Amino acid sequence: MKRSVFLLLLIFQFGVSAWSQTQEELIFERPLNNLYLGFLGDLSLIAVNYERLFEINSRVLLAGQLGVGYNEEFQLCFFGPCQEPAEKFVTFPVRFSGLLGKKKHFLEVGVGGTLVYGSSPHPYYVYPLVGYRLQPLVKQKMVFRVFALYPFKSRQDQAIMPIPMGLSLGVAF
Questions:
Q1: What is the mean pLDDT of residues 46-55?
Q2: Most distant CA pair in the chain, distance
Q3: Of the given ranges (13-22, 97-106, 127-136), which has the lowest mean pLDDT?
Q4: What is the CATH number of the domain that holds 78?
Q5: pLDDT at site 10
Q6: What are phi and psi of 61, to 5 degrees?
Q7: Does the reported pTM lie above 0.85?
Q8: 63 and 20 within one domain
Q9: Quick one: 3 and 75 in the same domain?
Q10: How does pLDDT run across 62-92, given as a tens digit for each residue?
Q11: From 24's CA, which of 55, 125, 153, 169 has a CA 20 to 30 Å away?
Q12: Looking at the structure, do residues 25 and 89 belong to the same domain, yes or no?
């Protein structure tokens, strides 16, 4: 009887320690790569982005992102169609940000820049950003970001109209 109780306690202890170790691994083995589509942010109507995360600790992450996107010249034509078709641009967004949060929910604060390839009067835009991010704890789960930004250079003669909000959906791996 004493042996069976001892064996049950030993099995219980092993099971509890294995479960807690699994929980710690989920926190500290977070996927550090993201691939996502960005909509309206980073001075792109749509963009494909790759992001690498660097885990400082379980509550602080650093992120670096590179992407390629598409945008069009902003035109207002009040009386009929515009005289010329809107010019199309290829964009290359780059961003560095810090994430502060707990488990999957993070506040994102950073700075970004977008290189605009085309005949834009301003080929590079720099902007601060702030947002919310849902960053999964395991691989093959959805990444969700919503953020606000506004370029430091804001002039009337710019070809691209900056949209102050963006949305990103993708997968962590």
A1: 96
A2: 94
A3: 13-22
A4: 2.40.160.170
A5: 55
A6: -130, 150
A7: no
A8: no
A9: no
A10: 999 999 999 887 777 777 777 788 788 899 9
A11: 169
A12: no
Q: Domain containing 163: what range?
A: 31-172
Verify that 21 and 68 share a domain, yes or no.
no
Q: Answer yes or no: do 57 and 100 share one domain.
A: yes
CB–CB of 111/96 below 8 Å? yes
The answer on 108 and 141 residing in a single domain is yes
Identify which of 108, 102, 99, 116 has the alpha carbon closest to the alpha carbon of residue 45. 116
Q: How far apart are CA 94 and CA 85, in angstroms?
A: 28
Residue that is written with structure tokens 């790759």 in the block? 50
Q: Where are the beta strands (DSSP E) in 40-118?
A: 46-57, 60-72, 88-102, 105-117
Q: Are 146 and 170 in contact (CB under 8 A)?
A: no
Number of structural domains the chain divides into: 2
Q: Please say whether the beta carbons of 149 and 127 come within 8 A.
A: yes
pLDDT at 28 (0 to 100):
52
DSSP class of residue 70 equals E
CA gap 44, 66 in Å, rounded: 13
Among residues 68, 72, 135, the alpha carbon closest in space to that of 108 is found at: 135
Same domain, 35 and 24: no
